[in-house]
Amino acid sequence: MNVQFRDRPASSAEAKAQAQAKTAIADCDIHPARATATELHPFLAKRWHDHLETYGKHPYQGMMEGPPYPKAQPNASRRDAYPPEGGPQGSSLSLMQRQHLDPNNVVLGVLNPLATGQGIRNHELAAAICSAINDWQIDKWTSKDARLKGSIVVANEDGPTAAAEIRKRAGDKNFVQVLLLSRTVEPLGQRRYWPIYEAAEEAGLPVGVHAFGFGGNPITASGWPSFYIEEMVGHSQCQQAVLASLVLEGVFERYPRLKMIMIEAGFGWAPSLSWRLDRSWQRLKSEVPHVKRPPSEYIRDHIWWTTQPMEDPERRDHLFDIVEWVGWDKLLFATDYPHWDFDEPSRVLPPGVSDANREAFYLGNAKALYGLA
Amino acid sequence: MTSPILGGVDCDLHPAVPHLTSLLPYLDDYWRDQVTTRGMTDLISQSYPPNSPISARPDWRPAKGKPGSSLKDMQAQALDAFSVRFAICNPLFGVQMVFSEDMAVAFTRALNDWLVKEWLDKDDRLRGSIVIPVQSVEKSVAEIERCAKDKRFVQVLMLVMGDIPLGKRAYWPIYTAAERLGLPIGIHAGSSYHNPPTSVGWGSYHIEDYVAQAQAFQTQLTSLIIEGVFARHPKLKMVMLESGFTWLAPYLWRLHKFWRGIRMETPWVDRAPLEIVRSNIRFSLQPVDAPPEPQVLNRLFDHMQSDELLLFSTDYPHWQFDGNAALPDGISSDLIRKIMIDNPLATYGRLKQVQETTP
């Protein structure tokens, strides 16, 4: 991570051959960006152009521009990922192809737009931006490169409106999942969010929960920390609370065909959290009679995990214990392109993995989950 | 079943204040009058509803009164049953929830005096933690200095969920006093409920709050390490109490990875987070959030890469295990000795000092 990549060779025949010799991979966490502030306007009613110009997005945090914890690098992105034609990192399809999709032999790339309508306090504006982002994903990305698939982003704090957006996109092959961010106003298992799960299950789409966002709550149970690294590390604690809520509210009892993906929040914590949930449930199940099975079983059956940022123990063999406990069939490889903590595909797995597990990890699990056999 | 050995140190027991009115003899006239005139209710935290299954093991639940309120029961069920040499009392009375620092000062002072008179004076195996009015750093330091004269107080007690993250510089005078007086800081599960118990707000259920304690410990460890508490206070020990520990290794892998990537943000963190944990942080044994298979637990110990991190605890009277199974199955006799005796004695310097019965 935080490595400066040198320019790769131009797309010569040699480079192409090298790329194709590499393992074909799915990248389940790619972040597309807008090249200009007005790039969404064609997909957004005129009313909102003026509104945004006058009042801004009015999110669940105080800064008019940028995040409350300054990132470690501009836009949290690789310094070598600025498009030569201008605009921020991740805003150019041709550079993404040249720098990432082609040389790393990405055959499936899942787009997770982060700067959307989520985390906006005006729910009508939130819904308009989310819908515009969905149109923009088709227009700028998925219609131009068949390897790329979009995520249906929704105004998550308004369940019925979010569900309507999912139903509007259901069956559209440009999209392979519904995307939520982890930092919400209330824990994601709560019933205000159930219409989202109902619509996703109905559409046969998994729901991804990507670390980050704004919900107005401090990232620790003791208030706001001081540093960016605390927020970055804290996303994995946040995701634990999200998952505990989903299980303990009975979401997977209510929506038994629902599949969810924990994106960019790590997976090393999953076994310990599962054991803690099981132990606590053994004692306290009378409080949650709607939770009918040990929590770990819901997690094993319903949850997938993207890999980046890959857990990085001192002794690499320790990683295999965790993966055994989580399940080789549940991991989805991801790079987080173009973000600075990009995981380089060729270096992420230690040696000693069977061919079958390696194939599942890099591609097979993603194809099966997203129904792209 | 793995049997505890003789002469251990139980690092986490919870004597219960029967009721706020039990503290009246330890309050001054003004506060005695406030409690009665205003009809103040008992300070029971939602973290441990007295009738919740986690708050008392079924066979440790008294016929009447709060679990943990009887010294005789504690002696029979914990001190004698596990043949301990020392037992550290961590009162979980809800003084941290109070918003007024004046009220907090009165109640914590009374609580600490109550612990001395009603518990420490009555059984010489017992040791105490100084509960501080964390609502005021200045007054917390004063209470630490007042109580520390009694060498039976062996640590300072804080809760894992409070007003601001524990590493924040505002708290450092507390850590300076504790380090100077040879007192570790014990951080126990529980909340002041001044912030929501999770980073996504308030969950619906008691079980969610309890599960969330482990995440709170993780964010607090990040805060303590990243703010530089241990660069400033290298001799300070902190003990995570009722925190669980099976999350530790994967948590550190993540913290370590990000520290390597963005250490330029906090250049004073000049040692790797896992080295800091090994030298300055300890964990009470219970709860063991792991499956019962010894091979899994031994993998987890291997992931931790240190046999010095765990301190024996029963978490009496909370329900963490049944029978005498305070130690999980399958751990080596060397590790048992470390957990029960060597590690606690190395952590709590005051346990080794000559016993004094008066302040």
Question: TL;DR?
Answer:
Chain A is an alpha/beta fold and 373 residues long. Chain A contains twelve helices and eight strands.
What topology does this entry show?
The complex is a heterodimer of chains A (373) and B (359).
Chain A: H1 13-21, E1 25-30, H2 46-55, H3 93-101, E2 106-111, H4 123-142, E3 148-153, H5 159-169, E4 175-181, H6 194-203, E5 207-210, H7 228-248, H8 251-254, E6 260-263, H9 270-284, H10 295-302, E7 303-306, H11 317-326, E8 331-332, H12 355-369
Parallel strand pairs in A: 1-2, 2-3, 3-4, 4-5, 5-6, 6-7, 7-8
Helix pairs in contact in A: 5-6
Chain B: E1 8-13, H1 29-37, H2 71-79, E2 84-89, H3 101-118, E3 126-131, H4 137-148, E4 153-161, H5 172-180, E5 185-191, H6 206-227, H7 229-232, E6 238-241, H8 248-262, H9 273-280, E7 281-284, H10 294-304, E8 310-311, H11 333-347
Parallel strand pairs in B: 1-2, 2-3, 3-4, 4-5, 5-6, 6-7, 7-8
Helix pairs in contact in B: 3-4, 4-5
How would you characterize this protein structure?
The complex is a heterodimer of chains A (373) and B (359). Chain A is an alpha/beta fold. Chain A is 38% helix and 10% strand. In chain A, helix 11 links the parallel strand 7 and strand 8. The N terminus of chain A is likely disordered. Helices cover 37% and strands 12% of the residues of chain B. In chain B, strand 4, helix 5 and strand 5 form a beta-alpha-beta unit. The longest helix of chain B is centred in the middle third of the chain and has 22 residues. The termini of chain B are far apart. At the A-B interface, helix 7, helix 9 and helix 11 of A face helix 6, helix 8 and helix 10 of B.
